[in-house]
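Hi,

Apologies if this is the wrong queue. I'm a grad student, and the batch job for N-acetylglucosaminylphosphatidylinositol deacetylase from Trachymyrmex septentrionalis produced an output file that my downstream script rejects. I'm not sure whether the problem is my script or the file. Here is the sequence I used:
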Amino acid sequence: MMADLEYVRLYFSLQLNEAVCWWCYYIREISWQLLIALLAYLCVYVFLYTILKQVDHTAWQLPGPPSRLLLVTAHPDDEVMFFGPLIYWLTRSKTSEIYLLCLSMGTCHWLDIKQTLCLLMFTSMLAGGDRRRIDELWECTKVLGIPEANVTIIMSGELPDDQGVQWPTDTVAESILQYIEIYKINAVVTFDKYGVSRHKNHISLYFAIAALCIEKKVPAYCKLYVLESVNIIRKYIQLLDLPVSLLSASYWYLVTYEQKQTIKSAMAAHKSQYVWFRKLYMIFSRYTFINTLQEVSALDLELDLQFDED
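Support response: The file is valid. Your script probably expects a header line. Output copied below for reference.
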């Protein structure tokens, strides 16, 4: 009986040793393959970055280009944290004019404007009160090159700066549509349905333009685009995301490390928000280097809604 147990113990010991040896060999082989793949990817990245620094990017930017583009954001600092490359190139374009519509003051919980939507031009803000976020947005847009007269902020009790609150679609959609019609906007850019950071205020903007598109309220001369959200790994690998971005995106805007300094300086204008984790964000986030955009169409939205229901 004891001999049988010893044989069983010896058998399982041999099997365990064999399995450990096999896994060590497998991991070693896989490690080399992963290392080779990583080096190949880095070579592709360096090649693409070197080439793209030397060539004109117009062919991959929004078609037209749009003569009047409206960027819709949820909070002061969204424009530079997420849309910096887009703004950088549009403000340097001789054929495009960029408008910024910000739908909250960032710290507007103290406002009590009952069911009233107040559109205030940046030059005629509230007298008194906490204007810090407004002044910071003003300074930021100066650095980015957006004209003061092209910046509008909406203040409404219906649109609080709160990650847990999804804004009323009708209210946001009405504000965007009014701006499109008043300024004859022919391209609108905002967040996609994931809002980059899954912030509900960001996602509300997507649902607003989606509603306008499905209900066919958007003028024929206006196109709708959204900023592509990516997974957390791609989000924080800087320009290493470049090869994947170029393969997946319909349109993109890219800045070099040197050009990114303008975006970094603009973010620094948001002094109250420029805390340590946002400084890290500005170093590592791909959104400070590249913006990838997708056009929104009624057909795509209807298919998307069907998949969501399923």
